[in-house]
Automatic annotation (TrEMBL):
Family to which the UniProt record says this protein belongs: Belongs to the class-II aminoacyl-tRNA synthetase family.
Recorded name of the encoding gene: LOC109682113
Key words of the record: Aminoacyl-tRNA synthetase, ATP-binding, Ligase, Nucleotide-binding, Protein biosynthesis
Protein name per the record: histidine--tRNA ligase
Example GO molecular function: RNA binding
Residue ranges of every copy of the Aminoacyl-transfer RNA synthetases class-II family profile domain listed in the record: 62-417
Reactions the enzyme catalyzes: tRNA(His) + L-histidine + ATP = L-histidyl-tRNA(His) + AMP + diphosphate + H(+)
SUPFAM superfamilies for this protein: Class II aaRS ABD-related, Class II aaRS and biotin synthetases
Binding-site list for L-histidine: D131, L132, T133, R158, Q174, D178, R327, Y331, Y332
Length: 506
C-alpha cells in the first residue's frame, strides 16, 4: 500500500470528494462520519462569514495621518526646534520605541495605567515608551555616562483619552533636550528655560508664559498642611490636573477619592492660588509655616538663584512662580516648569485656541541611579516641546489665513513642446539630478506643453527647462521663469551653472 504522502494528485482529489460528500444510508458508518464532520466545518465557516460585520477602514483612536501639506508644516517646526537644540551644543540620540516594561513602570506613578503593554516577546515583557526621559536615563546608566547634553526627537505612546481638538493624542512626537551631569546650581536649569523661550518666540505662536515651581516646595507645602507622606505622590497627581480642572473638582478628588482630610485640602488650596515673580519667592521665605520646612527652603533658595539667571538672560518677564504647578510624573526632584500660550481675543470667524501646555520639563536627579546597579546618581534637567499641540495651532492659523503650502521642493521642471523627445528629457533630467538640482518631469512619452506648464504653476515649481527640435539644432535650452513667464535661451553646456546661479539668488 503506498504512503499517503505519495498518492497521485487525482487520487487525493477523489479521496477529498468522498470525504466532503453528504452521507447516504448505503454508506458505511465511518464514511458517514467523515462527511458529517466536513459538512459541519463548512457550515460553521459560512455562518461565520455571514455574521462578520462590515470592515471599517479607519485609524486607531487617538492617532492621525499627516498629509503632504501637513508634513511640510511639521518639518518646519522640527527644523526650528532641532536647530535651537544644536545651537546650545546638544548631541543627537535615538533609543528604541519600546523598552522592558519594568524600566518604564518604576517611576510613572499614577500614570502606570497609561502605558501600552506589548505581548510577551521571547520571554521579555515590553511596553511602548511613555516619554523620552526614562530611556535617556537608562542609556546613561547602561553606558556609565556622567555627563551629556543631548536632544532626541521621536514618537511616544500614552493610553489615555485623546482630545483631538486640543492636539492631545495617544501617539505623538516629542522633542527633548536634556543636560546630564554635576554642575553648579540652576545654570543648566536657566538654559533650559531660555531654550523654551527661543523656540516659542521663533515659532511666532503668540504671547506665552512659563510657569515655574519646585517639587521640594510642593512637598514642603504638603508637609506643613498635614498631608501624610504616603499620600504625597497621589495628591501631587491630583494637583497636576489644575490646568484641566477647577480647584473645586481637584479638591473633591483629593478628599473623596484619595482620603485627604477636608481641612488639609483647604490649606493646600490657599497655597495653590498664589502666583507671581521673584517677589512671591521672597514672600514665601517669610511664610511662617513654609519657612520652617527644610525641603521648601532649599527649593525657594534655588528658585531665587534661578530668577537671577533668568534676568541676565533677559527672559524673567516670561516666567511666573506658580504654586499650582505640580507635574505628575514621579521622577521630578527639583525645579519644574510648563509653558502655556496666553489666550487672546479671537477675531471674527476664528475660534479661540486652547491647547494647554506646549512645552514642559524639570529636574530629575535620581532617575539615572534607578538603572545603575551601584545606584550612582547623575543629576539631570531637561525639557520637552509639544510638537502636536504647536502643529495644531499653526495648522488652524494657516486654515484661517488661507495660506497655501507647497508640498515638494522641486526647483526645475524638464519639459518639451514636441513628440519623441523622451530620451532627450531623460538625459537632461539626469544631468540636473547629478548636479544636485531637484528636478521633475511628467511620466509620459508625448505630454502637451500646456499640461506641463500648468503642472509647474500648480506645484509652485519656479523654473522650467524646455527642449525641442529648434533648441536641439541650435545647441541651446530654453529656461523659463514660471512666475514671470519670461524665457531665455541658454547654451546647453552653461545650463546647470545658470540654474544654480538663479536658485542661489532667489
Amino acid at each position: 500500500m503506498p504512503q499517503l504522502g505519495l498518492l497521485p494528485r487525482r487520487a487525493w482529489a477523489t479521496l477529498l470528494s468522498q470525504l466532503l460528500r453528504p452521507p447516504r444510508a448505503v454508506c458505511i458508518r465511518e464514511a458517514g462520519c467523515h462527511g458529517q464532520v466536513a459538512e459541519a466545518v463548512l457550515t460553521a465557516q459560512l455562518k461565520s462569514d455571514q455574521e462578520k460585520p462590515n470592515f471599517i477602514v479607519k485609524i486607531p483612536k487617538g492617532t492621525r495621518d499627516h498629509s503632504p501639506q501637513q508634513i511640510v508644516v511639521r518639518e518646519k517646526i522640527l527644523d526650528m526646534v532641532v536647530s535651537c537644540f544644536k545651537r546650545h551644543g546638544a548631541k543627537g540620540l535615538d533609543t528604541p520605541a519600546f523598552e522592558l516594561k519594568e524600566m518604564l513602570t518604576e517611576k510613572c506613578g499614577e500614570n502606570f495605567g497609561l502605558i501600552y503593554d506589548l505581548k510577551d516577546q521571547g520571554g521579555e515583557l515590553l511596553s511602548l515608551r511613555y516619554d523620552l526621559t526614562v530611556p535617556f536615563a537608562r542609556y546613561l546608566a547602561m553606558n556609565k555616562l556622567k555627563k551629556m547634553k543631548r536632544y532626541q526627537v521621536g514618537k511616544v505612546w500614552r493610553r489615555e483619552s485623546p482630545t483631538i481638538a486640543q492636539g492631545r493624542y495617544r501617539e505623538f512626537c516629542q522633542c527633548d533636550f536634556d543636560i546630564a551631569g554635576q554642575f553648579d546650581p540652576m545654570i543648566p536649569d536657566a538654559e533650559c528655560l531660555k531654550i523654551i523661550c527661543e523656540i516659542l518666540s521663533g515659532l511666532q505662536l503668540g504671547d506665552f508664559l512659563i510657569k515655574v515651581n519646585d517639587r521640594r516646595i510642593i512637598d514642603g507645602i504638603f508637609a506643613v498642611c498635614g498631608v501624610p507622606e504616603s499620600k504625597f505622590r497621589a495628591i501631587c497627581a491630583s494637583m497636576d490636573k489644575l490646568d484641566k480642572m477647577s480647584w473645586k473638582d481637584v479638591r473633591h478628588e483629593m478628599v473623596a477619592k484619595k482620603g485627604l482630610a477636608p481641612e488639609v485640602a483647604d490649606q493646600i488650596g490657599d497655597y495653590v492660588k498664589c502666583h507671581g515673580g521673584i517677589s512671591l519667592v521672597e514672600q514665601m521665605f517669610q511664610d511662617p509655616r513654609l519657612s520652617q520646612n527644610k525641603q521648601a527652603l532649599e527649593g525657594l533658595t534655588d528658585l531665587k538663584l534661578l530668577f537671577e539667571y533668568l534676568t541676565l538672560f533677559g527672559i524673567s518677564e516670561k516666567i511666573s512662580f506658580d504654586l499650582s504647578l505640580a507635574r505628575g510624573l514621579d521622577y521630578y526632584t527639583g525645579v519644574i516648569y510648563e509653558a502655556v500660550l496666553l489666550q487672546t481675543a479671537a477675531k471674527a470667524g476664528e475660534e479661540s485656541l486652547n491647547v494647554g501646555s506646549v512645552a514642559a520639563g524639570g529636574r530629575y536627579d535620581e532617575l539615572v541611579a534607578m538603572f545603575d546597579p551601584k545606584g550612582h546618581k547623575v543629576p539631570c534637567v531637561g525639557l520637552s516641546i509639544g510638537v502636536e499641540r504647536i502643529f495644531y495651532i499653526m495648522e488652524q492659523k494657516m486654515k484661517a489665513s488661507g495660506e497655501k503650502v507647497r508640498t515638494t521642493e522641486t526647483q526645475v521642471f524638464v519639459a518639451t513642446p514636441q513628440k519623441n523627445f523622451l530620451q532627450e528629457r531623460l538625459k537632461l533630467i539626469a544631468e540636473l539630478w547629478d548636479s544636485g538640482i531637484k528636478a521633475e518631469m511628467l511620466y509620459k512619452n508625448n505630454p502637451k506643453l500646456l499640461t506641463q506648464l500648468h503642472y509647474c504653476e500648480n506645484m509652485g515649481i519656479p523654473l522650467v527647462v524646455i527642449i525641442g527640435e529648434q533648441e536641439q539644432k541650435e545647441g541651446v535650452i530654453k529656461l523659463r521663469s514660471v512666475p514671470s513667464r519670461e524665457e531665455v535661451a541658454i547654451k546647453r553646456e552653461n545650463l546647470v551653472a545658470e540654474i544654480q546661479k538663479r536658485l542661489s539668488e532667489s
